[in-house]
Structures are given as structure tokens and as C-alpha cells.
Batch of 2 targets.
Target 1
Amino acid sequence: MERAVLEVEALTKRFGALVANDAIDLTVQPGQVVGLLGHNGAGKTTLVSQVVGLSKPDSGSVRVAGMDAIADPAAARRCVALQAQSQAPLDGLTPRAAIEIAGRIRGMSRNDARRAARELADELDIGEWLDRRAMPDGGGLSGGVRRLTAFAMAAVAGVPLIILDEPTNDVDAARRRLLWAAVRRLGDEGAGVLLVTHNVVEAERVVDDLVVLDRGAVVAAGSPSRLRGDRDNELRLELSLTPEGEDPTLPPTDVPMPVTRRVRVGRRVLLTIAPDAAESAVRWAAALRGQGRVEGYSLAR
Ligand SMILES: Nc1ncnc2c1ncn2[C@@H]1O[C@H](COP(=O)(O)OP(=O)(O)OP(=O)(O)O)[C@@H](O)[C@H]1O
């Protein structure tokens, strides 16, 4: 197998007491589109910042195209194109100029950069704004066109690893479809793509693998169909709380099994757990009831 374009191992990053990335393992192969999913604050942007050398991990390793991205961030960065979550600073530029400059910085000839900018504009259907200038007050270009231009800037020159952080924000539905198709094309042409998104439903169609983060840790990883299969088998433990309202699932908790989802509705708490955790879940819930800490419990598919 070809060498992975991104190898993250046991990556840990703390902000004071908060563990923003908790021993994360993640690999992107050439030609593979990997979706990185997670709620707000799950640790996605923290992970991306370390991959591109903007912040240093507390422990763990990051290799980009075989290079140690922690020891030599500048070398690693040459192999990565990043579309950041914040809008790209395009003020005073036209999309055409911005995309061409991004290509030239990556070593493309003037002609190649010009041709690539035109092709990307056609692919994303932003040709009519290609020569319109972005104004500093936010005028000139819509948020969606700015976002698509930033995507084109990341996609223009062939680098081994392309990281897209929420590339569809502000983009209309029709152009989102074009953008997803372009993401798939980048993978099919051999790039490794790490796609950070909240948009699971749309991303699922273009990714090969998904990595799901929750509170800094990887809670699920694999192909979308495998993860869906896992979900079909998941169990739901429901606890009925006492009128006093003690919630034994809140920290400090002695819950003995991994919980992939916790939802509280009134005096009921629903925990989603793996099928092989059924026995320990029932033993724990029965003990809670025995101690009078919950009124009752049930376990269901
Ligand atoms: N510089 C920082 N200092 C302190 N805490 C931080 C810092 N950067 C991030 N955090 C915290 O680390 C956790 C992970 O944040 P991060 O931005 O990586 O999440 P995210 O998954 O990218 O979220 P979102 O989807 O909202 O962008 C959050 O609790 C956040 O408040």
C-alpha cells in the first residue's frame, strides 16, 4: 500500500484541565476522503490546527506525507492545502486572482494556474463572479461565493493532503452538490482529503470513511455503511430518575460502559450503548434501583 498522507497517532492536546484532543488516532490514505464529524467543541479544529503546525500537541505524533509535522511544520505544510473554517481574506481580490495566486504559490505556471482557475469556476458554477472584486465591507461577493473561492484555492494545485474545514457553510443547495462532487473528484485523482463537517447526511455520499469525535476522543470510525450497521445494533438504556432528580449519569459517575449518546428528557435519561455492554449496563442499572437512586430502568434495541 502507498504511504498514508496523514498519520495521526495518540494525539493529545489540553487547554488547562480541558482535554480538547484525547489520544486521537486517524489515518488518511492517498485517494481517500475521510470525514471528521463531531458536535461543536468536539475537538475538530484543534486537531486540524496541529496537523498544519499552528499549534503543538502535548503528546502523540502527526506525519504528513511521511514527514514529522511536529518537528518540521514548515515542510509538512508544503504538502497540505487547508480551507479554514473562517472565511478566506479575499478583500480587494477577484475570485480569479485569488485562485490563480494560490496556484502560483504552489508552483504552478501562469498558464496552468489560469486554466485551473477557469476549470474550477466552471465546476463550481461561479463563473459569473470570477472577475468581481470582494469588498472589505463584505460586499461584492456573497458568503457562498467567497466560500467556494476558498475551496478552489485549496483544490487548485495538486498537494498530497487537502483539509477542508466546513467547506459548505453559506453555500446554496445546488452548488453544495457541485462542491461535494469536486471533493470526490479530488480523492479519485489521488489526493487524500480530510473533510471536517457537521453535514453528515450530505458528506456520507462522498466519504470513504468517517471518524466521529466526541469531547476530544474518537467514539466511532469506519465506513458509513459499517457505522450505520453498528447503529442498527445499538442498545438504549433508559433510566427513570427519582423525583429528587439525582442524575447518576452526570459526572462524577460510575457508569461502567462506553456511552455513545446521552439524552435527558424530563426525568428520563436515555443512554446509547454497544450491544456487548448489555450485561454490565443491566447490572449497573439494577444496582442503582436497588439503592433507590433511580425509580426504574429498561433496555431496548
Ligand atoms: N485556544 C484555546 N484555549 C482554550 N480552549 C480552547 C482553545 N481552542 C479550543 N478550545 C476548547 O477546546 C474544545 C475543542 O474545540 P474545537 O474548536 O477544536 O472544537 P470543534 O469540534 O472544532 O468545534 P466547532 O464545530 O464548534 O468548530 C472546546 O471545548 C473549546 O472551547
Target 2
Amino acid sequence: MPMAGPRTRCDPVRPGRGQATRSALICQTVPVITSPYIELNRDQWSALASSAPLPLSQEDVEKLRGLGDPIDLAEVDAVYRPLTALLEDYIGATRARAQRTAGFLGVDEPPTPFIVAVAGSVAVGKSTTARLIAHLLARFPATPRVDLVTTDGFLHPNRVLEERGLLARKGFPESYDRRALLDFVAAVKSGAPSVSAPVYSHTVYDVVPGRSITVQRPDVLVLEGLNVLQPAPRGPRPGASTLAVSDFIDFSIYVDADPADIRRWYLDRFLTLKRTAFTDPQSYFRRYAAIPDDIAVAAASEIWESVNLANLRENIAPTRGRATLVLRKDAEHRMSQVLLRKA
Ligand SMILES: Nc1ncnc2c1ncn2[C@@H]1O[C@H](COP(=O)(O)OP(=O)(O)O)[C@@H](O)[C@H]1O
Ligand SMILES: CC(C)(COP(=O)(O)O)[C@@H](O)C(=O)NCCC(=O)O
């Protein structure tokens, strides 16, 4: 993310013993690191929290956190109190600008939903971030109506993935119905009164036929998924639209961590799911419930390497620099650094 450019730096050279005292300069070309982000460490970020108590209990946090994510009230306080305050500020500024523009044009055009996108690898904890943001923003008087949509509903059904030889590419850009996802986000951002999105089930590992979630012009839409910062497909047909989902996003958050840590979280979660969700006869992974842990871990490792890590490297991590804010986590899921796009 930081960009390097050369500059000349000159430092005075101290004369050695017995040498003439005339000062001298030694000059060299050194790279200058500039970045479009303001970087804050954990203490700097968490110190931005206001002293008002968070409208959340430890019990709420336990309900909202994803499987394997140890986040507690103190961590929510450190990360999400400043984050939601910042988001409310962005939302207020966006609304004020929309009002000024409507006044300038002499039209009566209310602001459209503010879209917050949450991106990052499989198993990095996007759903915890998305759920906490949605829950907290809904408690602010200016944004009581908040909806949360995950992009997995826009995956092609397994039948289509199988036909196209893409079952082992689930989560890769081509495994989604990108047109439908783009149409959905564009409709929300056009102020459509009611827009529906399909729903995915992690249990059956497929899109649920006939099920949908309807979004009715909320104050905020939180959109969570691997691919929300993905650019439009490369080399589109001449004349085809180059619009991408990210063109309709007002604020994006990339949840970032070391791939070695994410791998461990993925495998630990797989073992927990093996004892819980996979025992459901409806579970796509039910065959793993009854096999020894080491064989299940070997299979999960293979899925991690060949699907999720490959997708992280090829498609997801390259979009990190497009995010408004990068939330960097340490090996224990604790926020270690926040990068915020300079205004
Ligand atoms: N095979 C599965 N069965 C049931 N739930 C799952 C399964 N895989 C993932 N989940 C759940 O789905 C949610 C989204 O997971 P994922 O897409 O990996 O994103 P993240 O971990 O970044 O939130 C998580 O809450 C996770 O616990
Ligand atoms: C469904 C997912 C692609 C996540 O989709 P998202 O909500 O981010 O659009 C992912 O959880 C997944 O199932 N990946 C395929 C490999 C695996 O089983 O882990």
C-alpha cells in the first residue's frame, strides 16, 4: 500500500579527530514512503472512543460474534466505539452533501441508503464486524433502520457451479452472479423502495431456493462478502459496462490478518463445526462429523490451501488498498492497527 518515490537526503558529517572542523554534507538518494492512509496503532485508535457508554452488553456481544471469534465487550469498546462514531460522521456528511446537491439542482431527492461494505478473507471474522456495525449503527438516532446483506446469496447455485466446473472455486469472482449483485446494489443506491437479495445457507452449502431478504430503503445497508471490493471483470466485451459493486459503496472496511493466523482460525472453526453444525443431517459437510479429527483437519487444510488461500492471494488481498478503512488484527483476533484513507 505505501508508495515509494526517491528523494535526496543530506546529513552533516562529523569531522574525525585531528581533522579540519569545516562542516561537510553527505547526500544520498533514499526512498520516501508515502501512503494514502493515516495509520493508527491500537492505543491511538481506541483513545478516540468517546466516554459515552456503549449501548451493548457482554451478552449482546456473545450473540453477535462469529464462531471462534473471542471478541469481548472491552474489544468492542476499543474498536467499534470509534468506528461507529466515525461512520455516523461520514453518514451525516454524505446526507448534508446530498441535501446541498438537491438544493443546488432544485429537486426534492432524499438521500439514498448509506452502504457500508465489509471485505476480507474467508474466516477472518467479517460477519462479526458486519453484525456489530449493523447493531451499533441502529442504536444511533440518525440511523435507526439498518439492514445487513451477505453476498453469498449471490453465489451461483451448486448445480450451476457444477455445470461450469466451478464447485472448487466457490468464493472466486466467477462463482457469483455478478450481474445480479451489481443490479441489487445499484437499485439500493438508486433509492428503490424495495429490493430483494437471495439467501445462502452454510448448512446446505447452497443458495436456498425461493428464500430472499428484502431491503426497503434503510438508512444504512451493511454489505458483507469476500468480493465487495472486486473491480469489474477484466477485458469486458467492447462496449460492456465496467461498473463494479464498489462504485456504489460509501464506506468500505477490509478486515485484515496474517494468512497463517486466518488458516488456524479456519481449521479451529472447522473442528468446532465438526462437533456442532456438521452433525445436522442437512449439513453438506456431515460426512466429516463421524471421521477422526486428524483426517477432518487434513481435508480442511486442503480446502483452505486450494480454495480459500488461493482466492485470498489472487482476488481478495489485492483489493485491500481500495478500502476506506483497513482493520488489522493480531493472532488473537485483537485489533492491532487501523488504516484510514486520507480525506
Ligand atoms: N460449513 C459451515 N457451516 C456452518 N456455518 C459456517 C460454515 N462455514 C462458515 N460458517 C459460518 O458462516 C459465517 C461466515 O463465514 P465466512 O464467510 O468464513 O466469513 P467470516 O469468518 O469472515 O465471518 C461465520 O459466522 C461462520 O461461523
Ligand atoms: C460462502 C463463502 C464463499 C463466503 O461467501 P461471502 O459471504 O463472503 O460472499 C465461503 O464461506 C465458502 O464457502 N468458501 C468455499 C470454500 C469453503 O468451503 O471454505
